[in-house]
Amino acid sequence: MKRRPWSLLSLSTRILASSIIFIFGNTVYLGWRHHADTESQTGSVARQLQNFRGISKEIAVKQSSIMENATLLDRDHSASAESFSACLLVNDENPRLPEWLAYHYHTLPLRSIIVAVDPNSRSSPKDILSRWTTMGMEVEIWDQDVYLPADLLRSHGICDSNVEKGCKWKHRHRQSYFVMKCMEEFKERNKSWVLLTDVDEYITFNHIHQDDPVGELIIPMNIDANDAAEARRRLPNFGEDVTILDVIKNEVDTKYGRQAFKRPCLSIPRLLYGSRESKYDANWIAMAPEGFQDEDFVTLRYRWHAMKGNPNEKVWGKVILDLSRIPAEDLKGSAKSIHRPLQRQCLADPTSYTVSLFRVNHYLDSFEAFSYRYDARSLMRKCEECYEEKGKGADWAWDDDVRKWLKSFVEKIGLDVSQELLANAGSFVDLS
Q: pLDDT per residue over 109-129, tens digit each?
C-alpha cells in the first residue's frame, strides 16, 4: 500500500501521532535520566571516597554518622568553584586543627585543602582530616617529596633546632615550595580563591570599632578611605549565614571593590590576640553552645588584642589569591614567602587596616599551645620569657566579633555532627 505523505494526513491524525511520539520520547528520556542520575550520584560518592590521599597516598575514609546527619545544603556546596581552597603546612597542630577546619569551612566556605606535614611533626593529622571528606571537602596530605626539588630533599629532613643551625631557613624553603606547588595544583583543578595562613590564624570580617587606627597611611593608595568605610559598614555579622566569598562577590563591582580587588592577590592585615584570660572580666559572656566549652577554642577563649595597625603585625600580613586571574606560568618554582608569594601580583605592603574588608586574627594562645610544636623554633618555644615578650601589648582592647561563629556553625550543621567534627579540639596529648 502506498503511504500518504505526512503533509497530506488530517490535522487531527497528525496531532494524535505527535502526542504519541512526545509521550513515548519523554518516557524513554525520563528512564534514561533516572539511570544517568543514579550513576552520577553513585560516581560522585565513589569519587569522594577515592579523593583522599594520605602520606602513603592512601588513607581509608573514616565512616561515621556524619554522612547521615550532615545537612544536604552543605554537602551540595562540596568542592565547587563557588568555594575556597587552602594550602596548609602543619607540625603537631592536632589540638587546634579541628577548630581551624570547622571555622573556615563555615566562614569562607572552605571546601578543598592540601595539607603538608612537616617531617619534624610527631603526630599525623589524617584522622582529623578524614572526618571532613564525609562533609564534601576535598582533602589531600602531601609528603615533602611531592613538592620539594630532589636536590633539597636530602638536606631538608628532620631538623632539631636545639642542635642544628639553619632550621628556620629550611622551614621557610619547605613552606615556599609547598605553597607554590599547592597553588599550581589548585590552578590545574580550576579552583579560584585560595587561602594561605597557618593554623594559629583565622580570617574574619574587619568590622569598624572605636579602637581603629586614626590617620593611618592608606595602602594601596588608590583606595578611597570613605568608600572603604562604607564597604566595612556593609559587612555582615556572624550568624547571618554570609561567607567571606559572599562578601567578595557582593563587593567586587562596587566602587570600593573595583579599587580593592584590582589585583588577584589580596593582602590582609593581621591582628595579634594575646594570652590574657577574659573569663574573669566583668563583661565576659560565655559564647560556646551546649556541648562545648569556651576554653577548648582559641577563637572563643581569647578576645584581647594588640593595637590595630601595629607595624610589626602589618609587615607580616597574609593573603588570599584568585587563581583564575593568575597565569599558570607564574605558579612555578618557589614563592617569595607565604606573606607575599607572588611578587608581580602581591603588594609589597599589606592593605592598611582601615581600608581592608577582612583581617587575620593571629592567636598567641596559651604557653602550653605555644610550646607544643617541635619545629624550627623549638628552642624559642620552650622559653617562657620569649612567649611573654611576644605577647607584650596584646591586651590593648577587646572584641567578641569572632566568638559567635561556633554557635552559628552548630545551628547549621547540627550538634551531633559538630561534636564528631570537633572531637578532641583543644586537647594537648603528651607527645614526648
A: 999 999 999 988 999 999 999
